[in-house]
Every structure is written in C-alpha cells, then in structure tokens.
Amino acid sequence: MKESPIQAIIIKWLREQGAYVVNIHGHPMQEGGVPDILCCFDGLFLGIEVKVPGQEPSKLQQYHLEEIAKANGYSFCAHSLEEVESGIAAVKESISIKVSKIIRPIHEQGY
User: Fold this and answer.
1) C-alpha 33 chain-centroid distance
2) Average pLDDT rounded to a whole number, residues 56-64
3) Contact 82, 50 (CB under 8 A)
4) Looking at the predicted structure, is the pLDDT value of residue 94 above 90?
5) pLDDT tens profile 72-91
6) How many domains would you assign to the chain?
7) CA-to-CA distance for 3 and 24, rounded, in angstroms?
8) How, if at all, do strands 44-50 and 20-23 pair?
9) Which CATH number covers residue 13?
10) What does the DSSP assignment read for the chain?
11) What is the mean pLDDT of residues 20-27?
12) In what order do the strands lie in the sheet with 74-78?
C-alpha cells in the first residue's frame, strides 16, 4: 500500500471542509522531512505526516512535527482519514480547554 491514496482522501476531505491545503512532494531542492500535508483548518495551522498503517515518521519527520508544535502550530502523524478527523477533534478540544481556563477566571472577576 502507498501513502499517496491515503493522502488524496485526506486532502479531498480537508478541502471539502474549507481548509487551505498544500500537498508537499519531496524534491531534491526541498528541505527533507517536511510533513506531507500543510494546511490551515478553521484558523489552525496543521502539519500532517501521512504514513501507511504500521509505519511511523522518521527522526527527521518527527523533528519537523515537533518544530511546528513549538511554533504554536499543531502536528501529528496519520494513517487514515479517521485519524485526521480524530487529531483535529483533539486539537479543537485542547484549545477549548485552554480558552475556558482563561475565560472562566475573567468571568468570575465580573469583567
């Protein structure tokens, strides 16, 4: 099984959801390890490394996923569309929790 059919399904779904999507194709003149999919989804910057089931990102790919996270973007490895949907849901949930922790104290102070 190849990654490209999985990527195509994920990209199609992201675009149907209104995301801006760039599919990164490895090239000798490009920096190595960049995630396969870079996108803006509901205002969130996402880096998605697509792998066939049973495979995981290389050290260089993992480095880039971590660098995106350090820059306050979101990144993960996905083996299917379902994992992308779950990953995005988890990102949104974590943001919701962070925002509620900020808003609640302000509300309690009567602002």
Assistant:
1) 15
2) 95
3) no
4) no
5) 999 999 999 999 999 999 99
6) 1
7) 12
8) unpaired
9) 3.40.1350.10
10) --HHHHHHHHHHHHHHTT-EEEE----TTSPTT--SEEEEETTEEEEEEE--TT----HHHHHHHHHHHHTT-EEEEESSHHHHHHHHHHHHHHHHHHHHHHHHHHHHTT-
11) 88
12) 20-23, 37-41, 44-50, 74-78
Residue 15's domain comprises 3-108
Quote the tokens at residue 45: 């910057």
Cβ burial, residue 68 (10 Å; 0-12/13-18/19+) = buried
Q: What letter represents residue 111's amino acid?
A: Y
Calpha distance 103→25 (Å, rounded): 41
Q: Both tokens of residue 94?
A: 């974590």
CA atoms within 13 A on the CB side of 13: 14
Report how far residue 61's alpha carbon sits from residue 86's, in angstroms, rounded to the nearest whole number: 20
